[in-house]
Amino acid sequence: MLDAIITAGGTMSPSDPLFALTGVEKKALVPLLGKPMIAWVLEALVGSGLVENILIVGLKEGDIDTGGRPIHFIMPNKDEDAVTNALIARNELRRINPTVQKFLLCPSDIPLITPASIQSFVAECGSMSADAYYAVVDEATMEAAFPNSKRTYIPFKDGRYTSGDIFLLNAHLEPDMKLMRAIVGSRKNYFQQIRMFSIPFIVRFLLRRMPIFEAGAEAARRAGLGQGRIVVTRHAEIAMDLDKPHHYHLIKAMLEAR
After folding, report:
1. What is d(CA 54, CA 68) in angstroms, rounded to the nearest whole number?
2. Which domains, ranges and CATH numbers included, belong to the chain?
3. What is the mean pLDDT of residues 127-141?
4. Cβ distance 22 to 31 under 8 Å?
5. pTM
């Protein structure tokens, strides 16, 4: 069995178009078909049958209906950044379950994921002998599933990929916090991320000679995440996060169609 952390600390200002559409400050609580967005993620994790302990970061007990499930909650430290708070959450998970070895990390804004999505991603991780697994979706798969999602694709030697929103991580890693902050801070701009690597790496990337699996392994090594592996998943919903009003309408329609 695995444990899981759901990050749910994001808040929206009145100027955010998604706030204007939904009127909800806490992004995780954006309503979708009568329940908060995070509830869909929670149900997918529970329904997978692979997850034992679940820790939600950014909400308090009572903010959502857990259906009687023993869910754990922790509030982020407002004086710390997202990377530090993720590490604090990891440490809390280790306190809850001192024997934890691997855990899933995902945000609250991927409500289209299903139990099958979770099961498939874990199966695609294979032996789980690596320290960090990161999901990506190739352009053809993403566009076939969500042709109007307007995703950003990163070009590699073996194709163009968009980043997924689920990780499988070794619970005992001690990452390079400075580099992790830089990576997370530039997550919307892959050119800024590439600049953090060596000159030979940058040249190979720009010339489209860098295979995605090699890039993933090097990124994990530099970030102090040990042995890292990219998982090219066939489940496009893992990369369909809800950030903007057009995502809201697209995702709501797909949930209704289910």
Report:
1. 13
2. 2-257 (3.90.550.10)
3. 94
4. yes
5. 0.90
